[in-house]
Amino acid sequence: MNRKYQAIAEKIKKLVIDSEYRLGGKIPSIRDLALTYGVSITTITAALRLLESQGIIEAKDRVGYFASSRVLKDVERHREYEPVPKNLADNIFIRDLATLNQNHAVPLGSAIPADEYLPNRQIQKSLLRAARRTSETLNYWFPGTPAYLSAIARRMSNIGVNSTGSDIIATNGAQEAVMIALAALTNKGDTVAIASPSYPGILHALKMLELQVVEIPCFPHGPISLDTLEFATRNFEIKALCVSANCSNPTGYSLSDEDKQSLIDICKKSDVAIIEDDVYGDIFHGKSRPTPLKALDTDGSVIYCSSFSKTISPGLRAGWIHPGRHYHSIANQKYFLNLSCPAITQIAVADFLDCGTYDLHLRKMRKIYQRNVNTLRDLVLRHFPEGTHCTVPDGGYVFWVTLPYTVNMEEIYEQALRHRIYFAPGSMFSISKSAARCLRVSGSNPVTAQVKDSIRYLADRIEESPHTQTDACEPN
To answer: Which residue range or ranges hold the HTH gntR-type domain (predicted)?
Structure first.
């Protein structure tokens, strides 16, 4: 719990941020503040000194304290992005993507890989071999089977993260990894920062845990604005940042190594834990695998989450978490959530990885997804309204589409579903109004004639829909 002076400091800071004090304006005297808040002069003095150390206010000899011009200018610069804590309303746009896929809708927005892109035959063989090891597969293995944890440790070492296996916990996919990390780090009502737009599962997790969210917008050629992140961490008490630094969903963007280090430094200054979701990191489009934030972590503050759901099998739910210095609290969350993950899944995945064909499979998969994304982008830009913008992903198989005007995207979504066409409206990925003119398109399935017809169908519905001009987050 905060000391009294810290609580007072937070109240004064909010007044500064809300522009209750004009640019460079004088803060009430220490005596007046003490009367206002019903505390001692000593407490007020401690609060003001704390705010001065944070750059929120400035002291002038024999005159008093003033609202920092720098902070108020920052407020104005970032006000359009609304980087303030918000409650997640009950009407978050939620859809069951898996159910839509099973209903045979054309999967323009699904992030579930097509069966033909997955190593199903090899996994089947690995599952059969695992099933024969009944003494292992019918047991609990917490935090994971030795073979699985060792295989993960080797993969982590290949991307620059030191691991012995004993510092890793097996999870049921990356979604569970993120969920238990949030549960371990936060309490009801705490504030968490996320990139905007962001993976819908993050929004759902925050809502379930009754947390507040600060959305940090995208910026040109990157999944998150570092300037706005720094502003938010400086002005709000943020417990954690959830971010995909590589091939983020839904933009497909990655941060440069320099920006990754800057992000870590920003969070370290304000003691903000980083929850890194790197589930698309292996599906890069460039020459080499992008560095995860965890590889740059020197004090264990980055919690690394990933899975094989996008590369081996979504149904196996084979994930893991490298909790760093938060190992014990996260291990407790996992243990009391569901004790352990199915041993047969872990043994089968470890067997598949040991066969040595995974990297060859990844190389083939990357080429397919990059080709699919390029084809779909060309189709969208050809048929959608003039001025439509599409991100150019650094990896993965999804990209973000921004229309030149706002339409009723959810109405178009319902129309498309009636024609068995599924895409993902922008409101799935953000609570910001800026997402109203956006959608996610996915190349996780073959670009068939039916898919091409579906793009044209969406373009026609967008052209027919009444529209208005609004601002939007447009990553370039």
So the answer is: 2-70
